[in-house]
Design brief:
- Two copies of one chain form a homodimer.
- Chain A is α/β, with parallel strands linked by helices.
- Chain A has two domains: 150 residues, Aspartate Aminotransferase, domain 1, CATH 3.90.1150; 210 residues, Type I PLP-dependent aspartate aminotransferase-like (Major domain) (Aspartate Aminotransferase, domain 2, 3-Layer(aba) Sandwich), CATH 3.40.640.10.
- Chain A contains twelve helices and 13 strands.
- In chain A, β5, α6 and β6 form a beta-alpha-beta unit.
- Chain A is globular, with a radius of gyration of 21 Å.
- Chains A and B meet through α1, α2, α4, α5 and α8 of A and α1, α2, α4, α5 and α8 of B.
């Protein structure tokens, strides 16, 4: 049977994630993977879980297992509102922050509409934007007197420790971005799943705090609680959240209720902040270790970012190295990364790669970087 | 700030659910509600939860808290595949069966495409189909030599104990529907969240079993485990599930992982089937009780369906009664229902109502039906 005639026009724009494809094919535990964006399982509150689940069942009983409000359970919304310094009306719980990205695209974009993005940027956002047949256009390098492209609706941006670059927008860059959005009448989708994972320096104001009237802020529990609970949140003007609410009714009725109450109790008890402090320590050490190893092993001409937080750094290799072509060889040798070109809408920058430092076991980091460096050295000597 | 210019064309077709709006306004515990589609909390495995969570944490450890496969965790897919008599390649776990409905619409429908539906039909499906600007058209009453409307892509149908009607398609009706789909080259989206809740009679073959090549079957854990875990599953041809998989990557990366392992263990241990047997007993009693009370209290000229399973029955009142107009009065008096016209795409049949018998506390059922009957009697005597 031929199914082609049944598919919607959007389907032709669905693209598989090269990252997820790697995970389908490879047993990650058998190799040294710098590929995914997985948190270190050591940061998961495994030991606290029995007590946490018991508390949720005792305190909320059958409410924790029943359908819940589309906006999210009121207890969690209230806690997040307090944390974000907004009213609960400005908070919508999402079934993962990926859903937040997707819902923004759904309520804002028609086919052919345009979105300004950082380049490189998060692959899952590119997938979602493309799946609505929107066009992504690089943010102008100098925003001072830049114009938005015709048809632009919003800016999608990860200001803190971006995926994949690891880079953070400075305060002047944030101000310029907000000025640009105001001048050109664009909304801002501020995707900030890593904001709490800062290993050095001072937190900078969110774009939302600089332009609350035009920003949809996306938070995530995946890196501060656990990604196995699919939970994120969205903060924005009630006029926009009202449409998100209607959209979400048809998408999945409500976010996972039991998971929301686990997050509520984890947050309310202070356990989240204690766990977060430990995670920050752990990840700071892993970031430092990876930067040291890169400095020790990488050949001349290789550059990488120094992230102040988050999970990734981005490596720029000499022009003659093609990381897409190198990938199968690296995988056979036992090391995985994500080719940087996947994070550019046009597939350019084939001499770059994203390295994740959060997931890899500490004892695998040195052999992995050494192996990667020797593969690159071999290519350079050809 | 005026946000109107930012919204996608789809947004104008987003409609609030009157059912969910009721829940926003009313404390259900204070009234007698026949409105929602909530399971009875007595069917939730509250007592089993501590042992179940402990087992998941012991058996799967940090895997239960980490990101998972987009298709769902392999353990749960394998169990569902066995139960459905298919291969795991034909199973996709969804973040609720509502997501299954929405994803089918997303991969199949362009604006203006048409979907044949039962009338009345599930409001959440109407919301989702409308949100993609598809047009719903009633299934022809006699399918024998009927033609599909131009632009029809699929049939959306709840063959077992439909929401809201409570009615079940007979075997000849199923065969005629499948013949119609084959003759007119339509796909079938078989939404079957209540199939396991049968209180009398013999299970009939699924549409999927009659036409596996063109059916996407949607199952739900909400009525056999608990809706607070947002979990459903989809069974269909791998060619269609391949697109669902790509769509789901961009929607939410993967279904809730911890919830999936809870469902895995609940299913694998046999606890699900034991719990289901108890739920069927409980709901059979509630259905019988509601039918008895309707017979005892309702005035002449009121008719209702006799559902062999599921959560709902559908009431047809004399033509002069308008259940939309009656609603506020009923709510003030302390009883809630859903006006039947909400389940008709054109808002017709204003003399009908859906009554849910699963959620209401046993001691509230008699006063609620008596109250409803007296409101109707009053209107008839005007």
């Amino acid at each position: 049977m031929d199914y082609a005639r049944f598919f919607s026009d959007d389907v032709a724009s669905f693209l598989p994630s090269p990252v997820r494809e790697i995970f389908r094919k490879v047993d990650l535990s058998a190799i040294c993977s710098f590929a995914g964006g997985y948190p270190d399982a050591a940061t998961f509150p495994l030991r606290e879980m029995p007590e946490l689940t018991a508390r949720v069942l005792e305190k909320y009983g059958s409410r924790a297992l029943q359908y819940g409000a589309t906006q999210g359970v009121p207890e969690l919304r209230a806690l997040l509102a307090e944390r974000e310094g907004v009213s609960p009306d400005e908070v919508q719980i999402t079934t993962s922050s990926q859903q937040g990205i997707d819902v923004c695209a759904r309520i804002l974009l028609n086919p052919g509409d345009r979105v300004h993005v950082q380049e490189p940027t998060y692959l899952g956002a590119l997938q979602s934007l493309r799946a609505y047949r929107a066009e992504t256009v690089a943010l102008p390098a100098s925003l001072g007197d830049a114009r938005a492209v015709p048809g632009a609706k919003y800016i999608y941006v990860i200001p803190d420790f971006s995926n994949p670059s690891g880079e953070t927008l400075s305060l002047p860059e944030r101000e310029a971005l907000v000025d640009f959005a105001r001048r050109e009448d664009l909304l801002i989708v501020e995707d900030s799943p890593y904001r709490a994972l800062r290993y050095e320096g001072t937190p900078l104001p969110t774009l939302r705090s600089l332009a609350p009237e035009r920003t949809l802020y996306l938070g995530s529990f995946s890196k501060i609680f656990a990604p196995g609970f699919r939970l994120g949140w969205m903060v924005g003007p009630p006029e926009l959240l009202g449409k998100v609410y209607l959209c979400k009714q048809a998408l999945d009725l409500c976010p996972p209720v039991f998971d929301q109450y686990l997050a509520t109790e984890f947050l309310a008890s202070g356990a989240l902040d204690r766990n977060l402090a430990r995670s920050v320590e752990l990840y700071r050490g892993k970031r430092d270790r990876m930067c040291d190893l890169l400095a020790r092993y990488m050949p001349e001409g290789v550059r990488w970012t120094h992230p102040e937080g988050g999970l990734f750094l981005f490596v720029r290799l000499p022009e003659q190295i093609d990381t897409v072509a190198l990938y199968d060889e690296a995988l056979s040798a036992g090391v995985a990364y994500v080719a940087g070109s996947f994070f550019y809408p046009d597939g350019s920058h084939r001499n770059t790669m994203r390295l994740n430092f959060s997931f890899v076991a500490p004892e695998k980091m040195e052999p992995g970087i050494r192996l990667l460096a020797s593969l690159i050295r071999n290519k350079l000597s050809l």
